[in-house]
Structure formats: structure tokens, C-alpha cells
From TrEMBL:
This is ABC transporter, permease protein. The keyword Membrane applies. It comes from the Bacteria. Residues 66-415 form the ABC-2 type transporter transmembrane domain. The keyword Membrane applies. One of its GO terms (molecular function) is ABC-type transporter activity.
Length: 460
């Protein structure tokens, strides 16, 4: 274990404590922060709303008891929305209609009925805890939004005020207390069944193939790192000295793990930079009159799928790099020098490129069946699972199955290649790749038999 730890630390130090790593990390970090700050940067240098005419009709149906005087949700929304859109420079011709009549509550068939308004905001109360209905603390405010073509900027401003209703209720119920711990109210956007969500699906399908690129780059980096490091030792015959003091199994694990830990550290740093940029962007956007610079507002209805997609992308990046690092380490052990390694790793790179191109083509063409096949093949799954998930062709269950298959395949490859690595790492066979693998298998079999005989004799 000490030898394994030492080899891993040695491999990490070679990569982490270098000027190249510091410079590249700083450059990429600045770029990531800059990209995540783009919405607020663009918003600060543009004024797209100046003079834009808003003449939508909005009906607010408020069936809560908060509809009078200073405790009037409807008036709070109308007054606040008008103030903001005027300040933003819109030509404000918005018509707000209000109702407290239960007969105006939208039915399940609302979108099939004839209505003049572009949006209906339905505000109501729900008892969330058992007890005396007189107690207002037992109730929460809920909101349903019915969108029949309202201006997106106007809807954004209305949503800003809707998010405050739960806190407003608490302030009305408890004037002496501050609602600091009350969370934002999240409106329910009722989907219009008569309008296809094809636009959003097309956006997701167009963006999803881009996820393959960073995963492909990470896998390629891991593959080259592990192969190059093994070849440096083998081509200089230093491997003979190392294997004399360290078991081949330990050496194999150390090479793979040191590269993987480095890649995980690199990923963590990039994610950290991205989170810093995202946080700064949301803070700046939150301090502006318009929240148009917020990523949540920009992403709109696809925002809920972004976080699980990013998590899946990180998981697939790590597992994909791991399975290809295992393959790369074994292939490097078969090579004699750097030129030989570049030659015999061609089949591995072809598999990776085939998976890469297949995933991009299938994602761009929305070929569902092909994406599903690629998602369950271990060598292509890391590249395809995030794409298929973001495109909506598989859910979390199917994605989890693909990841489990990938994990099992990784473990099996580790079990198969570990004894073969022991036989190939000190071999300088220069025959064809297939013949080298056959010879390695025979040698590994003999070594296993010799070890078994040695153990039996030692026991006796």
C-alpha cells in the first residue's frame, strides 16, 4: 500500500506542480468565469427593451383571503410589475384584470376555451398541515400560470413578484417578524397541450451534442497521459528497475489512479470556476432592476434539466476516462517505444472516434434508436448518455442503467487486464498486435500456474 501511495503521489506531483498546469488552469478558469458572466455583461452594454410596446392582457384570479388594502396580492403584482416595466423603458400598454370570483378559476379545459387574455395568473391557498383552518400558518400560497402567448419580458417581471408572495403572506400574518427564512414561491406553469414543446426539444437536441466534446477531450487526455508515462519508463528500461521493487499489479493501479486523480482534481477546479462565475452572475443580476441577466431566466423551461445533465456529464467523464485509461495502460504495456505505442493504440482511438462521431451524428439527427444502442455500449456510453438524457430520449432510470453497465464493464476490464499487464510490461515483443496479445495471454497463464505451484510448495 505504501508503494502504491508513493507512486500515485509521484505521478500527481509530476503534473500538478508545473508551470504548464498553473498557466493552463488560470487561463481556462478566467475563460469559464467570463463565459458564465456573459449574460450580465451583455445586459449592461445593451438596452433591448427601450421603447418596446407591451399591450398584453393579464387576468389575475386571486381566491386567497389576501385581496384587500395592504394585504392585496393582486395589487402588489400589478403595482410592482408596472413600476418595473416602466423603469425598463417599455411602452407600457399592459391591461391587468383582477378577479376574486371562484367562477373565474381556470378549468382543466382552459386552453381549449376562448379567452381574450394572453396570460392568466391563478393565486390560491392550500392547507399543508392539519389543524384549525382559522390558523393562517397552516396554509401556503400556490400559483398557477397559464401562458397563451404573453411577452416573455413581461412574464419574467411578473414571475419576480410572484416569487415574493409567500414572504408577503408571512409579513401580513406576522407584522412583527421578518420573513428571512421563507423560501421563494415557485409558480407552476401549466403547459398548453395544444402547443408542441418541439421548439424546446429542438433547442435541447441542438445543444446536447456539444456535451460530447469536453468528455471526448478529457478521455483523450487521460488516454495519452497514462500511455505516455508508461512508455517513458519502458522505453528507457527504467521499468525493469521499478518492477523489481514494485509488483506489476501495483504499478498498473498506480498509473491509472494517478492519472484519474489528476483528472478529477482538474475537473473539480473547472467546476469551481464555473460555480464562482455563476454565483457572481446571479449576484449581479439580482442587484439589477431586470433579472434578464440571470441564467435561470435565460434557460427558461429547460433550466430544471441542466443540473442533472451536468451531474451526468461529470460522472460519465470520470467513468469514461477511467475505462479508457485502463485500456490505454494495457496497450502501452504491449508497446516497445513511443512510435510503437502510437501505432498499436490506433484501434483504441478508432473506437473512441467512432463513439464520438456516432454520438454527435445520432444526437444532431435525433436518431433515438441509435442513441439508445450507444448509451448501453460501455465504450460509447460515457459520450452518449448525457446527450441522450438532455435530448429527452432516456430518463434518469435508463441513464442509471447505462452507468451501471459502464461500471461493471470497467471492473471486468480491470480484472482481465491486471494479470495480462503483469506479463506484458516487461515484454519487448515486436510482432503484430493480435499476436502480442496472444503471447501475453499465454505468458500470463504460465505465470499464474507458476505462482500457484509456488504457493502450494510454500504451504507444504
Amino acid at each position: 500500500m505504501k508503494k502504491l501511495k508513493y507512486l500515485i503521489q509521484y505521478g500527481l506531483k509530476k503534473r500538478l506542480f508545473t508551470k504548464a498546469f498553473y498557466i493552463s488552469t488560470a487561463v481556462i478558469g478566467v475563460l469559464l468565469i467570463g463565459i458564465t458572466l456573459l449574460p450580465t455583461i451583455i445586459l449592461n452594454f445593451t438596452d433591448p427593451n427601450q421603447g418596446e410596446l407591451l399591450e398584453d392582457e393579464v387576468l389575475i384570479v386571486n381566491t386567497t383571503t389576501y385581496d384587500v388594502g395592504n394585504a392585496d396580492f393582486t395589487n402588489y403584482i400589478i403595482t410592482g410589475t408596472n413600476a418595473v416595466i416602466n423603469q425598463l423603458g417599455y411602452d407600457n400598454q399592459v391591461s391587468f384584470l383582477r378577479s376574486e370570483d371562484p367562477l373565474d378559476v381556470p378549468s382543466d379545459n382552459y386552453y381549449n376555451e376562448a379567452h381574450s387574455e394572453q396570460a392568466l395568473i391563478y393565486i390560491y391557498r392550500v392547507q399543508v398541515r392539519p389543524g384549525d383552518p382559522v390558523n393562517d400558518d397552516l396554509f401556503e400560497v400556490r400559483v398557477k400560470v397559464y401562458n397563451r402567448g404573453i411577452n416573455s419580458g413581461l412574464l419574467e417581471v411578473i414571475q419576480m413578484h410572484l416569487s415574493e408572495l409567500q414572504r408577503l403572506k408571512y409579513k401580513i400574518d406576522h407584522p412583527q417578524l421578518e420573513p428571512t427564512l421563507i423560501q421563494d414561491l415557485r409558480p407552476e406553469f401549466v403547459v398548453n397541450p395544444n402547443i408542441s414543446d418541439g421548439v424546446d426539444q429542438e433547442i435541447l437536441a441542438a445543444l446536447s451534442p456539444m456535451l460530447i466534446i469536453p468528455i471526448f477531450i478529457l478521455i483523450t487526455i487521460g488516454l495519452q497521459f497514462v500511455g505516455t508515462e508508461i512508455m517513458e519508463e519502458k522505453s528507457t528500461k527504467a521499468i525493469e528497475i521499478i518492477i523489481a521493487s514494485v509488483p506489476p499489479r501495483t504499478h498498473f493501479f498506480a498509473k491509472v489512479l494517478s492519472v484519474m486523480i489528476f483528472l478529477v482534481i482538474q475537473l473539480f477546479i473547472y467546476v469551481l470556476f464555473g460555480m464562482i462565475g455563476y454565483g457572481l452572475n446571479e449576484i449581479i443580476a439580482g442587484g439589477q432592476v431586470s433579472s434578464g441577466g440571470s441564467w435561470n431566466m435565460i434557460l427558461g423551461v429547460i433550466a430544471p434539466i441542466v443540473l442533472p445533465t451536468l451531474i451526468l456529464t461529470l460522472i460519465c467523464s470520470i467513468l469514461g476516462a477511467l475505462i479508457y485509461c485502463i485500456i490505454g495502460a494495457f496497450v502501452a504495456s504491449l508497446a516497445v517505444n513511443q512510435e510503437d505505442y502510437q501505432s498499436i493504440q490506433t484501434p483504441v482511438m478508432m473506437i473512441l472516434l467512432f463513439s464520438y462521431m456516432g454520438g454527435i451524428i445520432a444526437g444532431a439527427s435525433q436518431f433515438k434508436e441509435l442513441l439508445l444502442i450507444f448509451a448501453y455500449v460501455p465504450f460509447s456510453a460515457p459520450l452518449v448518455i448525457p446527450v441522450a438524457f438532455m435530448s429527452g430520449y432516456i430518463g434518469l432510470v435508463e441513464a442509471s442503467i447505462g452507468i451501471v453497465i459502464l461500471l461493471i464493464s470497467t471492473v471486468l476490464l480491470m480484472m482481465v487486464f491486471t494479470p495480462l499487464y503483469r506479463a506484458s510490461i516487461l515484454s519487448y515483443d515486436q510482432s503484430s498486435l493480435i499476436k502480442r496479445i496472444k503471447n501475453t495471454y499465454k505468458t500470463a497463464k504460465v505465470l499464474k500456474q507458476n505462482q500457484k505451484m509456488h504457493e502450494e510448495n510454500h504451504i507444504d
